Amino acid sequence: MHYLTDYHIHTRRCGHAAGEMEEYIEAAIQRGLREIGFSDHLPLVTHRDPELTMGEEELPRYVEDVLRLQDKYRSVLPIKLGVEADFIPGYEEQTLRLLEPYDWDYVIGSVHIISEWEFDDPRRIGEWDDRDVDDVYRCYFDLLRRSAESGLFDIIAHPDLVKKFGHRPQADLREEIERTAETFRKAGVTVEINTSGLRKPVGEMYPAYSIVEVLQQHAVPWVIGSDAHRPEEVGQDFNRAVAWATQAGCRETMVFAGRRVVNRLPLNEAEKRKQRPPS
Ligand code: ZN
Ligand code: FE
Ligand code: ZN
Ligand code: FE
Asked: Which of 94, 152, 210, 220 has a Cα at 20 to 30 A from 180?
């Protein structure tokens, strides 16, 4: 997998991940990844929750840790400075203010919250019973589009996270997906195939294959991420993500630095060989 990157890696600071940062790095080296990036949860701008994100006072130390490890492993594995930030409408300014002081290589944007309800938080799973699932899905995709349009984010994470616990819509949402793909394309964001869904009740990568196809038809660029919350999850199931991406016609994965796509890597070995001049 030396042609792949994993830009979605958490740390213990978020309060719901295990292991030392160096263990995540060692796992990436073991798996033969080409480069990685840490992307721990940015402190929530609305309230403090030590089980969801680090506190604001920890952010400078998180950045220092990543930069220190970047230096330490410089000759072994490129390590990028990233962060996963929640999209919370009405709090764009506050989010920007938290992000501004640092030289991120990329910012991952996530929708985990629908009007103060953390719909993917196991502690709040009961609230699904009080909701109309179709309605939740529509709200989710609306927020996802707005997150892309906000300009706050470079990569949109797990673009159908709403299915995490296995709740499935009754309504036909193809129109929603289509509009979302158009919005992503127009906004110039990269989107993530996130393998962590395989480890969740839904048992399926984010997004569903049908969504991968629609996004690919709109030529939205891709990265693959594990959303590792434990060292052994780094790069996990990437062969399955590559299979889906290539089946849908995607050939490249994006390399980020300084909040820009600086390189595109062929997504699989076969592609890589084809591109070599004949000897
Ligand atoms: Zn997390
Ligand atoms: Fe998340
Ligand atoms: Zn995430
Ligand atoms: Fe994550």
From this structure: 94
